[in-house]
Amino acid sequence: MFVTAGSDKIVRLWNAADRRVVWTNNRLASVIQAAAFHPDGGCVAIGFKKGGWMLLNSSTGDVILVRKSEPPEKISEIQFSPDGSHVALGCHDNDVYIYELQNGGTSVSLKARCKGHTSSVSHLDWSKDGEKLQSTSRDYELLFWDPLQGEQITQTESMRNTEWDTQNCVLGYTVIGIWPDGADGTDVNSVDRSNGKQLLATGDDFGNVNLYRYPCISDKAEPRILQGHSAHVMNVRFLSDDTRLISVGGRDASTMQWKVVKSA
């Protein structure tokens, strides 16, 4: 299963195997900018262009929780902590908001607000133990946090051996090789590491989906280029079982599935 959402203000849950829509929620009042599944698959968090966010039931698409005015600006990224107890939202006011889920997700409280970026937050990753967070911004900063305290970790050498639950940040040692010579900092829109930690996928401004071996630490890394989109590729994500890669286009408004085939 995977979710798509966008400028049409509609959320759709798809069955990847059957390539059909399971449910549609077209009752939302704002353009959608970000979405993320809870680790147990029970709900989906949705972030809006005008600020605010909500939780939807994954089985039905019904609304569980709504936060209309907080965070106050466009939500660019959402990530649940590995244990599902907290959710981080990257916002265009340059901050990362950390919420604690309560009563099975029917209520939340603002746990912390991470301040330090000088531009809007673009990507987020939690550490495997849920005790650290990394974030990137539109001005190409990579910052580290104690998310539950809202404090920036400035001793970056202490983060060297951190095991990250995901790799969605486009900056970092393990993704150095995704940036070719002469690349503009805006050329790579999205990155995702397979759950088996063997593959790394990116979506770029040239309409390409690029597949690398993970970690991608060579500046001469050569990707397998997957072509099909006619415009910018805005997001890429592996399914939870790594059998497929989903890519979402921008102006071409298309969603594509790529079957992951293991080499002999």
UniProtKB/TrEMBL annotation:
SUPFAM superfamilies to which the protein is assigned, alphabetical: WD40 repeat-like
Gene Ontology molecular function: any one: microtubule binding
GO BP terms, alphabetized: microtubule cytoskeleton organization
Domain of life: Eukaryota
Keywords from the named record: Microtubule, Repeat, WD repeat
Any one cellular-component term (Gene Ontology): microtubule
Stored Pfam families: Beta-prop_EML_2
Name of protein: Echinoderm microtubule-associated protein-like 1
The organism of origin for this protein: Desmophyllum pertusum
Lineage start: Eukaryota, Metazoa, Cnidaria, Anthozoa, Hexacorallia
GN (gene name): EML1
